[in-house]
Amino acid sequence: MSTEAMRRILRGPSGLGTASLHLARREEAPASPRTGSPVPGLYHHPVAEPDPERVAEVDRRAKTWAIDEIELYPPEWEEQFDGFGVGRYMAICHPDAPTVDHLMIAARLMVAENAVDDYYCEDHGGSPIGLGGRLLLAHTAIDPLHTVREYAQPWTESLRADAPRRAYSSAMDHFLQAATASQRDRFRHDIARLHLGYLAEAAWDQTEHTPEVWEYLAMRQHNNFRPCPTITDTVGGYELPADLHAQPAMQRVIALASNATTIVNDLYSYTKELAGPDRHLNLPVVIAEREERTEREAYLKAVEIHNELMHGFEAEAAALLAACPHPAVARFLRGVAVWVDGNHHWHQNNTYRYSLPDFW
Prior knowledge:
The protein is mainly alpha-helical. The protein has one domain: Farnesyl Diphosphate Synthase. The chain is built from 17 helices and no strands. The protein has helices at residues 3-11, 52-69, 78-84, 86-93, 100-121, 131-139, 149-158, 163-178, 181-207, 213-220, 232-236, 242-245, 248-268, 270-274, 283-290, 295-323, 327-349. The longest helix is centred in the last third of the chain and has 29 residues, at 295-323. The protein is globular and about 60 Å long. The termini are far apart.
């Protein structure tokens, strides 16, 4: 394949309505009506605004599902749910979703994953004490229990026992209707990775251990956004075949993308987490303590780490596509790239949740 042909694939299709499907975007996107500012020096790509009708419809359906159908949150948390902006998040990360129903697959899973984090780990009563047992039982809503008849019914009933398990169970039911067998198995694997990362962070919390920077990054490769971009083909209404997904080069590309998006979260949530009542590990905090840097120096080094991960992701994606010019590979890589850009855009412009430190 010629270099120019590879570039055409990386740029994605051309024509009306295809701008959001490009892997490497350098053109200017329409200005956002939101007011958030990007982290200075952070490598990212601008994105086009999502369809406002899709945003509103996903918001409406997600709220009805979360509050009315599965009673995920009490009424007094409604403002926080609205402030999260799940409709905008999903619409901007999955612009190639054929229908709102496809977007809702991602929206339910995203809301459920955040509920597990809130209820079990952080904001709403979470604790490292006993986290392993709670996560294991919640995980059976993702990877179902196969047991003897006597104990099958109590397990089935347990899936309604608390809000995170109700969310996982319901969201997974909808996902299973749209996903192939290999997509289901892939997602279960990535949620197991996520839960392993939760447990590592909880263990460090219990022992008051500040990990080395490389240890923190290893934890973040598990406790990260990977379950979200990994379903980009399901949400897009197609499948990246299992043998292509399992290639080491593809696994590296997905890992680099997921790691970069998670450092974005560390950077944008930095001031929010520092203002909380408890000590919270994030990359700038770990760098500051382990490398004896000022808060500003540590934050700016975290920006550099993010940028290196992003450049690595883009270089590895281009190399993979050159070596494997399969249409499903090209579409999946574009989908992951769009998710990475959309994730940054959502963090940058969600001023309800995030604000930047005064380091510039």
